Amino acid sequence: MAHQSTIALMHRQSIFLSSFQTDEKILFILNPFSRISHPNVKRPGGNTAPVNFIVVSYELGIPMYIRVIFMSALLLGCTSNAMVQRVDYIVDNVQVITMNSPDVKPDSAIVIDNGKITKIIKSSDAKKIYATHRIDGKGRYLMPGLADMHVHLRWDPQRMFNLFLAHGVTTVANMRFEDGKFDHLVLRDKVRNGEISGPRYLITGSHLEEGFPASIDEVERVLDDHQRKRIDFVKIHGDLSPDIYKAIITGAKRRDLKVIGHAQHKMPLKDSLVLNSLEHMEELLYVTRDEARVSDFSTDFLSAYRANAHRLWDKSYREKVVEDVASSGIYLDPTLIVYKMVGIWQSDAHLIALRDAPALRYLPADVARFWLSPATNPYQADDFPITKPEVDKNFQLMLLLTKELHDKGVPLLSGTDSFGTLVPGISLHDELTLLVEAGLSPFEALRCSTVNVAAYLGETGKAGVIQPGARADFILLDKNPLLDINNSRTASGVFTQGRWLPKDLLAKLISQ
After folding, report:
1. Is the peptide bond prior to 213 cis by the omega test (within 30 degrees of 0)?
2. Cα angle: 491, vertex 418, 459; to 5 degrees
3. Minimal CA–CA distance to 89: which of 473, 512, 506, 368?
4. Cα–Cα distance, 232 to 479 (Å, whole number)
5. CA–CA distance from 64 to each of 8, 58, 59, 60, 197 (Å)?
6. pLDDT value of position 83
7. Residues 326-366: tens digit of each pLDDT
8. What is the pTM (predicted TM-score) of this model?
9. H-type helices in 139-295, by residue range?
10. How far is it, in rounded angstroms, from Cα 123 to Cα 53?
11. Quick one: DSSP state of residue 471?
12. What is d(CA 311, CA 478) in angstroms, rounded to the nearest whole number?
């Protein structure tokens, strides 16, 4: 006598039902890539659509009883095809720089699913996994995407985003809410939602400086606004009164907001070290650790700065400053490249020579004209107070401080300021080069743009590294950046925001 039974075919999160007639015990072993010929047994998506590997057993005498058993290919002695795993992406035949150590994992494959790295395996094992997209990394180096943690988005956002991506920069932090008069909240959301191409976009609010906020009540309103809009950073740009400054620090901490920015020049150094990040190594030239000298910056700032810079050349004084910074736990974004450029912009001869720089072809014509013309470049103004030789001397001091702070354990970030003739993306590599010039190894410089940034953002292990569980955000380089930091400039593929951008598309982005 025939019995009516129901077979449940499980496909990911769905259950598909079909029925057939039988009068004997039946065992079905369904290979994910097998074909089912019985006309009443339908598999999702059609006859050849893959389903999860299952065993379905029906026993007579137990009406409507279904046992669904998930078994391994090893136990069943099935072929390897029966256990082929499905994922979104595999990057195969690649050499991996995890950034957890200054080593290279040769002949590797990175498995990516649902926007995360799930495995790092040998290339020989990658054929056992079915990927919707397979990227050949042969001869190339895979490392986390880079970050520019101090930018100013002041001209065509899409054009700037394209330049960042094309040069392997997958995270940027814009430093002023009013930059370019764009709606930065909308830009952030459009990038996040995939409506436009771009790096991960972090934003700060309006600059807080003398006169704003004007009262404690206004401080509270400003911080509430940051929290409501999910603005990433509170940016202190100018000198504030002690009560306003303290209210910002305590109010932001209560709301779990990061406060970053410039030093408070009319207060001793220790007061600035309560920030989450000090922006610009240059700021250490403008703030003293000695309370007796603080008033000098109120009466004659230029003379006080020069006296302080002179004292910083004294090793014993500089060691105290370095110790102060190191013991505070603050992060520091040196932005060395923009200070170096100040001397070039100030010098007539160097500004003229800059016109022939190949990278300037990426700037909008009006931006290039403004900064290359002595009539409009603000650093060419007759009343600009310092000369290129003074800038160059200060720059050497900043390189010295960078190395000593790093050696003392101060976590450094990578940022550029990205204004003037600095080209988005390219200038980040210039900054990495200067970190190496200061004495960091290429690996240490790259950590400032990857691992340190993740730690700063509270994402240790989730970003800035190549390891299982981390966000899939990486670049493919044609050459090994651990051997020469300039090899970080050889990006030939970028994966960010769940999207793979191959070399030809990167070239198209920057040609637009």
Report:
1. yes
2. 65
3. 473
4. 34
5. 11, 9, 9, 10, 53
6. 57
7. 999 999 999 999 999 999 999 999 999 999 999 999 999 99
8. 0.84
9. 157-166, 184-193, 216-228, 242-254, 269-272, 291-294
10. 24
11. B
12. 45
